[in-house]
């Protein structure tokens, strides 16, 4: 039996060797394939975790943007309300009304809150054009009722529209700033981990034990965020002057006693927007960031650098604080590029549209034109609520004075409302989220590395 087995093996040793080789190859090949499959599976799981962590970080970053806007907005709102004191003008009109009622009865009127425009006021208010005020006993000019109503009209509309633009610009700038810093900080933590452990591969996964930002990174981030000071203190003033000129041209001829339809109000508002927003090549950069050379001034006015540190005008003895920080300069340069980019201008246009839509199509429709909101079948917002729309009938009209009353109240809600319906409407714009995601996920180490 043993001899037969030996003969069999001797005769078939070639075939057996080939078979063993094939089996061995199959075994090795199977192990290789299984190893690659396991590696691919682990890599896919790792990528999935990385994407999920990045998504969570991104969403948190957008929430931070909302809180930041609400924290910064009152700074500009307070100054706009002070410069355009609609309530002060209203008080003067109330005093005139009280004095008039003390002398005579109250004829037919058009209400503006506690105010009214009377048909037998003893003066013509058909055009409400400026007229020389009669001198008072103290030698100071005293504005007529027509002049006060005209001032109220221009001031109330200018204030509300300026606040909508300011809110939209602040929302836009904050999204750019916090998403650029979110990307920069994330890359900084990843690079720090890789430098700490040379055997560790750079991974876009979340790590709860990531090292804190270095003092240099923190300082750069703080200075960069400070540049919102320009919009909050200077940019809105430039914006207000443009809006005011346009409002005077468009709304100037209107009389508070006149009737106005929603279509007319939309047309007038669109005329103002076209003047303020310009064409597709219009740049919002001067409203959002300081001109070249004023960067140190912003840092100094915001208290980031001491006031006594001022650059030498000749540039021979002291270097600009801003120019000496390459990471800070790079952040401002990228911010400027994003503001002037075609996608950036498109996003801003949508934010403006969302803000004016809330004012006109919701607040004025409901409160001035007295239209009841109707639910829209099939439309559900992010909170799961059925959305409602206000459909103003074509023949629906209201007094201009009623429009002014609503606009005056809404100005406070635009600038100080919590929750802020205008900000929520702007943040629902899908292109804003997409624009923010592009900024946050642009992991270009050559441009964004904080270690340069």
TrEMBL record:
Query: Which Pfam families does the UniProt entry name for this protein?
Result: Peroxin-3 (PF04882)
Q: Name one GO molecular function term.
A: protein-macromolecule adaptor activity
**Record-annotated membrane-spanning stretches:** 16-34
| A GO cellular component entry from the record | peroxisomal membrane
Single GO biological process annotation from the record: protein import into peroxisome membrane
- State the residue spans of region: Disordered: 123-145
Please identify the protein, giving its name as recorded.
Peroxin
Instruction: Record the organism.
Output: Orbilia ellipsospora
């Amino acid at each position: 039996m043993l001899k037969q087995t030996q003969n069999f093996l001797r005769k078939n040793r070639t075939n057996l060797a080939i078979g063993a080789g094939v089996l061995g190859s199959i075994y090795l090949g199977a192990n290789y394939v299984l190893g690659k499959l396991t590696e691919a599976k682990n890599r896919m799981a790792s990528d999935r975790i990385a994407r999920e962590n990045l998504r969570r970080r991104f969403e948190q970053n957008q929430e931070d943007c909302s809180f930041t806007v609400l924290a910064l907005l009152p700074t500009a709102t307070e100054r706009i309300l002070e410069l355009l004191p609609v309530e002060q003008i209203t008080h003067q009109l109330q005093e005139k009304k009280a004095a008039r009622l003390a002398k005579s009865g109250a004829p037919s009127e058009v209400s503006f809150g506690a105010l009214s425009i009377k048909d037998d006021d003893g003066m013509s208010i058909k055009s409400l054009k400026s007229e020389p005020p009669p001198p008072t006993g103290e030698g100071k000019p005293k504005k007529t009722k027509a002049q006060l109503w005209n001032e109220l009209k221009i001031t109330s509309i200018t204030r509300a529209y300026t606040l909508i633009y300011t809110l939209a610009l602040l929302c836009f700038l904050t999204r750019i700033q916090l998403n650029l810093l979110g990307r920069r900080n994330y890359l900084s933590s990843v690079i720090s981990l890789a430098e700490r452990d040379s055997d560790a591969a750079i991974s876009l996964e979340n790590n709860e034990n990531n090292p804190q930002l270095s003092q240099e990174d923190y300082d750069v981030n703080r200075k960069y965020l400070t540049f919102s000071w320009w919009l909050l203190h200077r940019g809105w003033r430039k914006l207000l002057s443009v809006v005011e000129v346009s409002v005077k041209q468009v709304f100037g001829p209107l009389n508070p006693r006149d009737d106005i339809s929603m279509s007319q109000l939309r047309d007038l508002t669109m005329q103002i927007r076209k003047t303020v927003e310009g064409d597709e090549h219009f740049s919002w950069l001067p409203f959002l960031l300081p001109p070249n050379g004023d960067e140190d001034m912003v840092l100094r006015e915001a208290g980031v650098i001491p006031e006594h540190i001022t650059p030498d005008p000749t540039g021979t003895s002291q270097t600009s604080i801003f120019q000496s920080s390459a990471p800070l300069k790079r952040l401002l340069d990228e911010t400027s590029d994003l503001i002037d980019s075609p996608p950036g201008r498109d996003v801003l246009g949508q934010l403006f549209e969302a803000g004016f839509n809330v004012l006109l199509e919701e607040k004025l429709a409901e409160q001035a034109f007295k239209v009841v909101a109707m639910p829209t079948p099939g439309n559900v917002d992010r909170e799961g609520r059925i959305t409602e729309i206000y459909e103003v009938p074509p023949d629906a009209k209201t007094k201009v004075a009623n429009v002014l009353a609503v606009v005056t109240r809404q100005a406070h809600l635009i600038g100080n409302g919590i929750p802020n319906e205008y900000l929520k409407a702007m943040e629902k714009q899908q292109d804003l989220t997409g624009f923010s995601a592009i900024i946050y996920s642009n992991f270009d180490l050559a441009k964004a590395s904080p270690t340069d």
